[in-house]
Amino acid sequence: MFRSVEEVRNEIGKIVGFSPPFRVTQQKVDAFADLTGDYEWIHVDPVRAALGPFGGTIVHGYLTLSLIARFASEVFRLEFESATLNYGLDKVRFPAPLSTGSLVRAKVSFTSITDHPAGSLVAVQYILEAENVSKPVCIADTLLLALSVSDPAR
């Protein structure tokens, strides 16, 4: 748990931790398809996908990316005096596909802190690793906005 931006600043460039492994099942992929309307066969048709380029279904990129919310809460907590908000993404890449049924985990690092008119921007990098895959399945550079206590927008 980090109680201040200064505590986070001391961890810049270090690995904060690893999330527990999480298995992405076909049921979860199908539920994501239902939610988003993305029914591409490579994600939801195991029979057809078995004959495709990956030998089975693969997880949607945006489902893979959304796991960051889960992994963040499992790896670190920011308990600042004021609120911390999701500010956005700087860069996201999917170097390798995530096969449905695989275990995936995140390696998490704080990469920088910069001033913002409303407080401080904390840059966090997530490298998602899957079992039996040599490349990451996702690399995401994210931004959290730690509001200053005196922020008039609160």
UniProtKB/TrEMBL annotation:
Q: Which domain of life is it from?
A: Bacteria
- By its UniProt entry, which InterPro entries does this protein fall under? HotDog_dom_sf, MaoC-like_dom, NodN-like
Q: Where is the MaoC-like domain?
A: 9-129
Instruction: Give the protein family.
Output: Belongs to the enoyl-CoA hydratase/isomerase family.
Q: Which PANTHER family match?
A: MAOC-LIKE DEHYDRATASE DOMAIN-CONTAINING PROTEIN
Q: Could you identify this protein by its name?
A: MaoC family dehydratase
Give the organism the record lists: Cryobacterium suzukii
